[in-house]
Amino acid sequence: MSIVTTKELLADAKARHYAVAAFNTNNLEYTQAILEAATEMKSPVIIEAAKSEIDYMNGFTFVAMVRTLSDKLPINVAIHLDHGPSYDEAVRCLNYGFTSVMYDGSRLSLDENIRNTQKVVEAAHACGVSVEGEIGVIGQAADSPEGKKGESDALASPVDCERFVKESGVDCFAAAIGNAHGLYTKKPKLDFDRLSDIERRTHVPLVLHGGTGIPLEDIKKAISLGVAKINFSTIMRQGFIETLRKTLEENPGDLDLMKLLTPSKLAMKAIAIQHLKMCGSDGKA
Q1: Full-model pTM
Q2: In the 8-state DSSP scheme, what is residue 282?
């Protein structure tokens, strides 16, 4: 099919009551695993990267890689900036050819968050690119490209969310409802009443960050309350690293890098398939 914006993907997801999985990536094998899984599941998918991951890969290389690997696949794919820290970073990604950008001003005052997000929306929409914002502070259960473990969280105010969406013009947004990035040390307690109120007030597709470790029943309930995009990152990296460690232990002295990395890529593919099914996006391409 084609490279599209997240706005296009999430409109269908919201209408048909499923969520699109967004997977962070930072190398070739990671990206291959995601796209192979999505193709096998006949699922739309979002390939995303945070600033540190983009810096590691080079933005032009990243976009070219996703576009080349996605060419002629029978699924729709969006290329997304995850947790963009500034207007300049968003514009940089527009120049790279991203089809979707996130500006995360959640640690700023509401007024400043709205002002900055408005600027990103104006620039992105002029390029035909969709924008994700964030309200409330989504904490860190573990170190990740999005931040350091232990950073505090603050749940989103439904009233603030309503104002944010109306004034900023975002196409979708992430609201902190008790979720966190990284590996949860205990079952997360998502505030579904808060989520329901936010959906009722905003009517735009909602985004759930920190998808790793959220139980299936909570994923399904969140989708029923308007969540149309769910981010997964830590679970993929964990699968890659644990499998690579085992492969290296079982093959001492082996210098065939492709042979050593293939089991890790297959592990990530299996994880991606599991989470695409959790989101209910299989068969929705």
Answers
A1: 0.93
A2: T
Residue of 12, 82, 153, 218 marked active site:
82
Q: Say how far apart CA 263 and CA 240 lie, in whole Å.
A: 8
Burial zone of 123 (CB within 10 Å; 0-12 exposed, 13-18 middle, 19+ buried): middle
Computed from CA positions of residues 232, 233, 235, 239, in that sequence, does the dihedral angle turn out positive or negative?
positive
Distance of CA 171 to the CA centre of its chain: 14
The tokens of 100 are what? 């979707």
Amino acid identity at 2: S
Buried b (16+ CB within 10 A) or exposed e, 143-157: ebbbbeeebebebbb
193 is known as an active-site residue? no
- Domains along the chain? 3-279 (3.20.20.70)
| Mean pLDDT, the chain cut into blocks of 10 residues (285 residues total) | 94 97 97 98 98 97 98 97 98 98 96 98 98 83 48 80 98 92 73 97 96 92 98 95 98 96 98 98 97
